[in-house]
Amino acid sequence: MHLSPEQTTANNIAILGAGAIGQLIFHQLADQGVAAKLLVRRSENTEKKLTITTLDGQTSIRTAQMICVDKLVQPLSDINLLIVCTKAYQVVDAVSALLPKLADDCHILLLHNGLGPHIALSSQLKHHGLTLGTTSQGALKNTPWHVTQTGAGISQLGPFQGPVLAPDLQALLRGTLPNSQWCDPILPMLWEKLAVNIAINPLSAIHHCRNGQLAEPQYKSTIDALLKEVVTVAQADGIALDKSALSDRVFNVIALTQTNYSSMHQDVHHQRKTEIDAITGYLLTRAESHGITAATNQALYEQLKQLEQKYLDA
Ligand code: KPL
């Protein structure tokens, strides 16, 4: 199926980052009649054909307006929502560089893995509303501009700072992201998702295994210790988490994604920088600020950093 590009509404949305999730959301917005612009690095300001294969096996091709952030001359004054889908370690630099080009009333939604960039950004955002979110939708890139949706997942969004996202944009996002919820407060939800990533990502990357293998008995006590530390640090941060509910959630995700390789496993496998600093690293930073030791997380963090350093330095 080939869809025409004139799917515009009064909502001017830009997606920063054209990874699998950024492209998936581009197509999901197009299904709602919104032609989002894609803000990327290393591209021409041009139109590109983007292809998606959805869970039901249907393939669609759409035209996207690409804007190269390194070649921005004009302000992006017409954008009223910026959805940030970059890697966690790119968020602060990428958003900071864009801020002077955005209108004061442009709302920002962070939709990356892990936590942390919201703290660094919050002092820079004088006027912009900031919404935080998490999505467990699955998507893989077959080629740079063809994504395949691999799992339905859920999305949770909620206000963090400044003006709250306008009701029509909230409604649009709720209609765009399948199984999505508006959560106020949002931080407990983001901590729960962080706990899942803390339990699964470093272990699967260090042991070169699929998520499903972490259900084997030899990993049980480590996962238990990792989650106990998460609960303690979250508590000190004012977030109450239930250890047994967290553990159920982690083993449920392990079962549901048993044949998948975690994103951190894939990053290590392809010798890319990982998101460990926004996952385990965030927990350790919060632990340190409260004078708490998180020994099991600390040990995995160091192991993963050593692994990563070997190929990043090579
Ligand atoms: O979010 C994930 C990731 O890989 O980053 C999980 C939930 C662990 C699924 O693989």
From TrEMBL:
Pathway: Cofactor biosynthesis; (R)-pantothenate biosynthesis; (R)-pantoate from 3-methyl-2-oxobutanoate: step 2/2
EC number: 1.1.1.169
Record key words, sorted: NADP, Oxidoreductase, Pantothenate biosynthesis
Ketopantoate reductase N-terminal domain segment(s): 13-161
Reaction(s) catalysed by this chain's protein: (R)-pantoate + NADP(+) = 2-dehydropantoate + NADPH + H(+)
Protein function: Catalyzes the NADPH-dependent reduction of ketopantoate into pantoic acid.
UniProt protein name: 2-dehydropantoate 2-reductase
Native source organism of the sequence: Shewanella colwelliana (Alteromonas colwelliana)
Gene: panE
